[in-house]
């Protein structure tokens, strides 16, 4: 790798131990993946926030760092709603550690807005062609695919290192040639809503980390693209996908159809909806319903509020979103919570230990369907937002 004189000085420790450690991580990654140097980035999104996932060792490592990030930087979801954790059934010891983790990041100049959808936040703009260092899988997919920005799927330490240095190694999805599709996915059915999450869940398992281009009969919305990408990243490891005539790279660059092609029919989509909710051999009954993985957009909040208006839910129901989206839409939060559902901020069902208090979770997210059984040891089944609300046992108050 070629380093500038300033970067060499940092690598030699002349700017302090924290920056030296940070640039060592970036240079090591660059050497492994054949980067020619470091490039400036516009923003960073840092995973490794929930105490459930990083524990005391992660907290100690973050707390030992000094300095300030050089670019706008934000956190991934934490393990609890930072204000209403008691209502989630979080123990006080966990809450104390979680607050310490967020405070340690804040000390480094990182915004303590904990969300997997930073592209919804005001003042955290991302544009086509921007170079980033993001680490949450669905955020990486959305920024690469739907926005047309450029980021690898960074680990928590490498994203934090990039934030401190203000640069990342120039390899992978920062390069034009690595962004070209290598496999075609032909969808032989019209899709809507949660069908796109089911599509991603089904296809991700088959294509691993390759870059696909989809040929569809329907034109997905941005929320539907978000669900598709999140599921592709969770059931596989897809960090970038294209949709012919829809996503910006596919429109601007007019890719040729790859030689390898797989077809997806309606039966493949229905198979995801019909997946049995079980851990081991035991089939479970739903005792919690969750939506918002990735975090709900304002449009999704409005849709959920419309479906719950004047209704009462009979089961535990979480609607996960960022605190900023919730605070910008208090009337929607009020309608949702009047039904008995909870608007949960800062966290989600995947990274919160509160999920462990339940046996079976119904989700509208292919990402959650992939992760909840393995990360939470909770059975999961899949449905649309409407099916999830029906599963919550809504009663009409009128």
Secondary-structure map:
Elements: H1 5-11, H2 17-33, E1 38-40, E2 43-46, H3 51-63, E3 73-75, H4 92-107, E4 111-114, E5 132-134, H5 137-147, H6 156-165, E6 167-169, E7 183-187, H7 195-207, E8 212-215, H8 222-235, E9 242-243, H9 248-253, E10 261-264, H10 266-273, E11 278-279, E12 282-283, E13 288-291, H11 298-308, E14 311-312, E15 316-321, H12 323-328, H13 330-338, E16 342-345, E17 360-363, H14 366-376, E18 379-382, H15 385-391, E19 395-396
Parallel strand pairs: 2-3, 2-5, 3-4, 7-8, 7-10, 8-9, 13-15, 13-17, 15-16, 17-18
Antiparallel strand pairs: 1-6, 11-12, 14-19
Explain what you see.
The structure is a single chain. With 398 residues, this protein is α/β, with parallel strands linked by helices. It folds into three domains: 5-176, Aconitase, domain 3; 180-273, Aconitase, Domain 2; 278-396, Aconitase, domain 3 (2-Layer Sandwich). The protein is 40% helix and 16% strand. It has helices at 5-11, 17-33, 51-63, 92-107, 137-147, 156-165, 195-207, 222-235, 248-253, 266-273, 298-308, 323-328, 330-338, 366-376, 385-391, and strands spanning 38-40, 43-46, 73-75, 111-114, 132-134, 167-169, 183-187, 212-215, 242-243, 261-264, 278-279, 282-283, 288-291, 311-312, 316-321, 342-345, 360-363, 379-382, 395-396. The strands form six sheets. Strands 16-15-13-17-18 form a five-stranded parallel β-sheet, with helices on both faces. The protein has a four-stranded parallel β-sheet with strand order 4-3-2-5. The termini are far apart.
């Amino acid at each position: 790798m070629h380093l500038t004189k300033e970067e060499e000085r940092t690598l030699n420790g002349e700017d302090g131990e924290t920056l030296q450690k940070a640039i060592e991580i970036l240079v090591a990654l660059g050497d492994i993946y054949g980067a020619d140097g470091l490039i400036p980035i516009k923003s960073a999104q840092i995973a490794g926030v929930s105490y459930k996932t990083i524990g005391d060792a992660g907290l100690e490592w973050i707390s030992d760092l000094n300095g300030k990030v050089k670019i706008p930087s934000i956190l991934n979801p934490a393990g609890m709603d930072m204000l209403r954790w008691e209502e989630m059934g979080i123990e006080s010891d966990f809450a104390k550690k979680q607050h310490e983790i967020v405070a340690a990041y804040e000390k480094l100049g990182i915004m303590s807005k904990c969300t997997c959808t930073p592209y919804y936040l005001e003042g955290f703009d991302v544009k086509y062609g921007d170079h980033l260092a993001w680490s949450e899988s669905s955020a990486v997919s959305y920024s690469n695919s739907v926005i047309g920005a450029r980021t690898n799927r960074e680990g928590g330490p490498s994203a934090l290192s990039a934030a401190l240095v203000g640069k990342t190694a120039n390899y992978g999805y920062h390069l034009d040639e690595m962004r070209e599709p290598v496999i075609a996915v032909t969808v032989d059915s019209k899709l809507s809503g949660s069908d796109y999450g089911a599509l991603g869940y089904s296809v991700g398992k088959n294509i691993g980390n390759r870059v696909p281009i989809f040929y569809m009969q329907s034109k997905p919305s941005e929320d539907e693209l978000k669900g598709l990408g999140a599921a592709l990243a969770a059931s596989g490891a897809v960090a970038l996908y294209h949709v012919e005539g829809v996503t910006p790279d596919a429109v601007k660059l007019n890719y040729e159809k790859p030689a390898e092609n797989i077809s997806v029919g309606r039966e493949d989509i229905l198979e995801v909806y019909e997946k049995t909710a079980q851990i081991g051999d035991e089939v479970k009954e739903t005792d919690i319903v969750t939506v918002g993985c990735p975090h709900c957009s304002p449009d999704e909040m409005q849709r959920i509020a419309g479906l719950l208006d004047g209704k009462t839910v009979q089961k535990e129901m979480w609607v996960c979103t960022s605190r900023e989206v919730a605070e910008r839409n208090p009337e929607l939060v009020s309608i949702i919570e009047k039904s008995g559902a909870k608007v949960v901020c800062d966290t989600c069902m995947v990274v919160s230990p509160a999920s462990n208090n339940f046996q079976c979770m119904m989700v509208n997210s292919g990402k959650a369907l992939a992760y909840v059984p393995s990360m939470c040891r909770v059975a999961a089944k899949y449905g649309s937002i409407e099916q999830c609300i029906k599963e919550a046992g809504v009663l009409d108050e009128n």
